[in-house]
Amino acid sequence: MRWILAILLFLLPATASTAWAEIGQIKLSFGQASLERKGELIPAKVGLLVEAADVIITGKDGRLGITFTDDSRFAAGPNSRIELTTFKFNATTHEGEFVTKVDQGTLAVVSGNIAKHRPDAMRVRTPSSVLGVRGTKFLVKVAP
């Protein structure tokens, strides 16, 4: 699990000078990693903007790090499938909602402004549970 910490430490929070056209940006990509968007697989490359409803997919050697506009940071591990179900964020008020579904694999999260503003506004769903984010850092692992 050291790779998860390394990815999270490397991901820098978004700054005001970052041009965010969508909900986030890929900061790190290793091995087989892609985004599924509207039925198409897009190779994950550093700098690629992430859109709401994208699905993160990694292969057996894949890892992916994303920083979101609310300064949340995700690190997806190998053999993961993670749906970005809902992302709404008001940069002025920090109000929003962030719901993610982990179908399989690992997801390490450092929560951002959405969870800081309202802790129950960030949730992670798995095939067997719904996790409410109450802290700032956590790891979810779902076996295939």
Description of the structure:
- By secondary structure, this protein is mostly beta strands.
- It has one domain (2-13, 21-142).
- Helix content is 10%, strand content 49%.
- Strands 1, 2, 3, 4, 5, 6, 7, 8, 9, 10, 11 and 12 form a twelve-stranded mixed sheet that branches.
- The protein is globular, with a radius of gyration of 14 Å.
- Mean pLDDT is 86; it is low at 12-21.
What layout of secondary structure does this protein have?
Elements: H1 2-10, E1 24-30, E2 33-37, E3 40-43, E4 49-50, E5 55-58, E6 63-68, E7 73-76, E8 81-89, E9 96-110, H2 113-117, E10 122-126, E11 129-132, E12 137-142
Parallel strand pairs: 9-10
Antiparallel strand pairs: 1-4, 1-6, 2-3, 2-5, 5-8, 6-7, 7-9, 8-9, 9-12, 10-11
Beta-strand segment tally: 12
Using the alpha-carbon principal axes, give the shape: globular
Q: Poorly predicted ranges (pLDDT <50, ≥5 residues)?
A: 12-21
Integer average pLDDT: 86
Whole-number total of structural domains: 1
